What we know:
- The protein is α+β, with helices and mostly antiparallel strands.
- It has three domains: about 10-65 and about 205-230, Pseudouridine synthase (2-Layer Sandwich); about 70-200, Pseudouridine synthase; about 235-290, Archaeosine Trna-guanine Transglycosylase, Chain: A, domain 4, CATH 2.30.130.
- The protein is about 15% helix and about 35% strand.
- It has five helices and 19 strands.
- The strands form four sheets. Strands 1, 2, 3, 4, 7, 10, 11, 12, 13 and 14 form a ten-stranded mixed beta sheet that branches.
- The longest helix has 12 residues, at about 25-35.
- The protein starts with 10 loop residues before the first strand and ends in an 8-residue tail after the last strand.
- The relative contact order is 0.21.
- The mean pLDDT is about 90.
Amino acid sequence: MLTPDPTLLDGLLLVDKPAGVTSHDVVARVRRSQRTRRVGHAGTLDPFATGLLVCAVGQATRLLPYVLGEPKVYRTRIAFGRATDTDDSTGTEIAQGPAPQWSRLTDALASLTGPLQQVPPAYSAKHVDGERAYAKARRGEAVSLPPVAITVHAWEELARGADWLDAEIRCSGGTYIRALARDLGQALGTVAHCASLRRVASGPLLVEHARSFDALAPGAMVPLTSALVAMPHLPVQRLAPDDVSNVRLGRTIEASIDGASAVLVREDTGHIVAIAERGLRHDTGVWQPRVVLGEPEPRP
């Protein structure tokens, strides 16, 4: 269980996004709740999807490139026999098909596991000629997107009906579950779309630790969680007070642990001071600050 720290002004806020709101809507709500414009998020969710959206608040936004956001874990219902232009339940029906050939399921899931080249949905945020693909698709223009490299680590069948499949999918960032639903339908001799989608995990972060969207009242100042919990891949070096000052000035400090990078923290509070990397000469035994966080800024 993550333990939010009410003293933190820079950190992570996990939000359980409801259906019908955009990721941008969540960021706007967090800004009003935390009384700061400095809010970002790690990994967009489609408006129809629900689940975990990892938001960074304050100076923690600068740590987002280092946050461990994989694997992504989703729970989805795939509905067979009906295709839509968006590959999800919000789109317009464009085709119908027969019942899925369940005898093919094992082979079909195997073919959609591992490193894959996935064609994104036409209604996606991919850029085509300097414009979002969904903008072209909404105007009725034909959209042809090149495949992108993704990895599906595993499928777990949760339940099955005559024309639907509930599954949990572990995958890399950038994977479109809508496209997996589309492709699974084809592999089972029919058409399909993603009827529901929920993100339950992003790296080490779980939706069960997230706040509800409604809990983010304006000015509520919901307690944040240290970004350290989302960076378990980085070793930690605790700093003496003099070293904290040196790091904030961009000066190198002696490296007391092995590794290519480290999260540096205050010795007295545990707050993150910087992300540092090994010096230019690996035999120097020093850390060079790369992303430096200043003193926490009070909220208005």
